[in-house]
Amino acid sequence: MGRITLEQVTKSFGEVDVIRPLDLSIEDGEFVVFVGPSGCGKSTLLRLIAGLEDVSSGRIEIDGQDATELPPAKRGLAMVFQSYALYPHMSVRKNIAFPLRMAKMDKAEQDRKVEQAAAVLNLGDYLDRRPGQLSGGQRQRVAIGRAIVREPAAFLFDEPLSNLDAALRVGMRLEISELHKRLTTTMVYVTHDQVEAMTMADKIVVLRAGNIEQVGSPLDLYRRPLNEFVAGFIGSPK
Ligand code: ADP
Ligand code: MG
């Protein structure tokens, strides 16, 4: 579960080629980070995987099945949005249970899954609060909880920490890494922050203007950057 393969995937908006023909394999359980400057196509690539955008050409496979034409809800993936995507009028419990209510899951089963997710995320004491009564980091954990209860084949994060201040970002980075160790579920994580990429990733995908410049472990990229762009971006001693 959680193996994602892109074959010759492209995306254009009108005349603009945002993703050039691109091949990528994400293995089961990997923590993969898409990194690159603003506008290079990171979000678009993640949205193509999620099914929130249709590819212009190419093929996407999830766990060996052709998913290119599947709607987002049928892909078995969960996108974690920034914390402001929570419903302000609903309790934490209801926010986390939201996808389960939509799926008309049995109420007792919903409660069980919410309790489990809350335990993993240390939100047990906050289930009856509203998002407005939580800190930024707690709100982000609620957003992650809403993804966890769906038991996705992979989590997709788009700059989930960009709203948080620097100190909180460090803490949340550790929490997400810890969560990955615990769940061992594939995570695809978009950031423009080199430090986040270098500290969190099993595998880094460096993007530039819709192309993959290099794929490798943080150490690979640091020691053997393929070009000046990667070296400059990763901060290799060259
Ligand atoms: P990143 O997440 O790396 O900052 P994006 O994937 O958001 O980059 O955007 C890549 C490029 O695609 C940008 O030039 C952006 O303006 C363009 N783009 C993204 N979404 C759309 C859209 N829906 N319509 C037109 N252009 C878009
Ligand atoms: Mg983006």
Automatic annotation (TrEMBL):
- Which residue intervals define the domain ABC transporter in the entry? 4-234
GO CC, any one term:
ATP-binding cassette (ABC) transporter complex, substrate-binding subunit-containing
Q: Where in the cell is it found?
A: Cell inner membrane
Which GO terms of the molecular function aspect are on file?
Answer: ABC-type maltose transporter activity; ATP binding; ATP hydrolysis activity
Entry keyword annotation includes rRNA-binding: no
Kindly report the protein's main subcellular placement as a broad class.
membrane
Keyword Manganese annotated: no
Which key words are in the record?
Answer: ATP-binding, Nucleotide-binding, Transport
The membrane topology noted for this protein in its Swiss-Prot or TrEMBL record is: Peripheral membrane protein
Instruction: Name the family the entry cites.
Output: Belongs to the ABC transporter superfamily.
Q: What is this protein called?
A: Sorbitol ABC transporter ATP-binding protein/mannitol ABC transporter ATP-binding protein
